[in-house]
Design goal:
Homodimer. The chain is α+β, with helices and mostly antiparallel strands and 197 residues long. It is 64% helix and 15% strand.
Length: 197
């Protein structure tokens, strides 16, 4: 937790303690008045009911305060959870904009492998890996889809079907046209695949 959150918790605890202490003091004063009044032989019936009414009012206020404080704690917990979720996905727009660049890098690497220039390929691979690792550190993860794995409509996007090259590939993924990516647990781009029929 940050220092700011710790300070807020400490402040809330201090306020709660001060209010509870004030309520307890008020109850103690009412109790002391009851004891003093018990010593007096000529106590009126109306005064007893007044003191009892005050005790009830103080108890009601204390109960109302505790409920309000509990509601506030729940609100703080809920908003902090929402804020954490927002921070996790706040850079989704930037990550989505970076995906075509990653695709272009992959295509460039494939073409450089065909050209046979090892030094150029090695340099581009270093840059590509650095970019991938930086994005991975920010929560972007490439979804691994293997050829021959089962097609799942909730995770994959089928763009076409072709006759299966073999019987064991019927209803399965034959090729991956475009890789998918996840940001944390959320899929920001579904992998585009070709299935066999």
């Amino acid at each position: 937790m940050s220092r700011k959150e710790d300070k807020i918790k400490d402040d809330n605890k201090e306020v709660k303690d001060q209010v509870e202490e004030a309520i307890d003091n008020a109850i103690d004063e009412v109790d002391e008045n009851d004891e003093n009044n018990d010593k007096e032989p000529q106590l009126k019936e109306d005064e007893l009911t007044e003191e009892e009414r005050l005790k009830e009012d103080v108890q009601k206020e204390k109960d109302k305060f505790l409920r309000l404080f509990a509601e506030f704690e729940n609100y703080k917990r809920r908003t902090s959870k929402e804020r954490l979720d927002l921070f996790k996905t706040a850079n989704q727009e930037v990550m989505t904009a970076m995906l075509p660049i990653m695709d272009d890098f992959d295509r460039a690497l494939n073409e450089l492998k065909k050209s046979g220039d090892e030094n150029l390929l090695k340099g581009i691979e270093l840059i590509h890996n650095k970019l991938k690792e930086t994005l991975k550190a920010k929560g972007l993860e490439r979804m691994e889809v293997e050829h021959g794995s089962d097609f799942d409509s909730e995770v994959h996007e089928a763009i076409t079907q072709i006759p299966a090259p073999s019987d064991d590939l019927k209803g399965k993924i034959v090729d991956v046209v475009e890789p998918g990516y996840k940001l944390g647990e959320r899929i920001i781009r579904y992998p585009k695949v070709i299935t066999g029929k």
